[in-house]
Amino acid sequence: MNTLAQDIINAHGGLDTWRTFRRVSATLDQGGALWGLKGKAGILDLTRVTVATDTQWASHAPFGAIAARSDFTTHRVALLDAQDRVVSALDVPRDSFRGHALDTPWNDLQLAFFAGCAMWTYLNTPFLLAWDGVECEDAGEWVEDGETWRKVSLRYPDTLEVFSKVQALYVGADHLVRRLDYDVEIAGNTPGAHYVSDYTTVSGIAFPTKRRIYPRGPDGQRIPEPLVVSIDLSDIRLG
C-alpha cells in the first residue's frame, strides 16, 4: 500500500480494526431505474445483505419470493431454499452476460450475480486498497459540488470479480470516500458515477449509509437523470 491508500483506510477505521471482523451485514433498501430496466423490479427492494471481508462472498436474504437467499462467490452464483438446498446455480456467471447492453433483461441468477458483486465491493471499500494485487495511484485533484476531492485510480487483479478492472474513487480532505467510478462491463460497459454520503460509525468502522448511482458522461461529470440505483443501508453489523 502507498501512503494515500493508508490514509484513506485509516480514515475509515484502520486495517487492524477491519481485520478483526469476517462479516458485514446490513438492511438494504434499494430503488432506481435499473431493476425495472432489467425486468427485476421489486425483488431486492428490501432485504438483508451479508458479505465476507476476507474472501469474495455475498448473500441477499431473502431473495424476494424466489429463494431464501443467494450465494455469490468469485466463480459461482447460486440460489438456495430455506434448508440451504440449491434451487439453481451457475458457474462462471460472467460468461452469461456476453453481448449484453444496458437494457438486456436478466434472469434470476444474473441478478444474484450483479447484486452480490456490487454489494461485496461496496461494503469492502476502501479496505480493498489493501487486498493482494489491487493497485492504486494518485490521479490528481477533482472539483465537484464546491469541494476539492482527490481522485485515486484503481486497478483490480484477475483474482477478483468486479464490474471493471480499472476504476476510480474520490476522497475528500478527510480522506472519506465521496464517489466511485466504474464501467459496468456486464451491461455494455455502461459508465457509472456512484456517490456515497451519510456516514455512520459501527464498531470503529465508518460506513456510508446512502448511495446514489448516475450515468457518467464522457467528461467525467454525472448525468442527473435517470437515477440508476439508490441504496440506503441501516442496521449495519460487523461480526
Number of strands: 13
How many structurally independent domains? Answer: 1
CATH topology: outer membrane lipoprotein receptor (LolB), chain A
The strand line-up of the biggest sheet is 6-5-4-3-2-1-13-12-11-10-9-8-7
Low-confidence stretches are: none
Structural class: mainly beta
Instruction: Encode the helix/strand succession as letters.
Output: HHEHEEEEEHEEEEEEE
Shape: globular
In CATH, the architecture is Clam
Largest sheet: 13 strands, antiparallel
Q: Which bin fits the share of residues in helices?
A: 10-25%
Tell me, rounded to a whole number, the average pLDDT. Answer: 96
Question: What is the CA–CA distance across the termini?
Answer: 25 Å
Strand fraction equals: 35-45%
Helix segment count?
4
Global Rg: 17 Å
CATH class: Mainly Beta
Topology:
Layout: H1 3-11, H2 15-18, E1 23-31, H3 34-37, E2 46-52, E3 57-61, E4 69-73, E5 76-80, E6 86-91, H4 108-124, E7 135-144, E8 147-155, E9 166-171, E10 177-184, E11 190-202, E12 205-215, E13 229-238
In short:
The chain has 239 residues and is mainly beta. Helix content is 14%, strand content 44%.
Describe the fold and architecture.
With 239 residues, the chain is mainly beta. It has a single domain, classed as outer membrane lipoprotein receptor (LolB), chain A. It is 14% helix and 44% strand. It has a 13-stranded antiparallel beta sheet with strand order 6-5-4-3-2-1-13-12-11-10-9-8-7, with helices on one face. The model has no long low-confidence stretch (mean pLDDT 96).
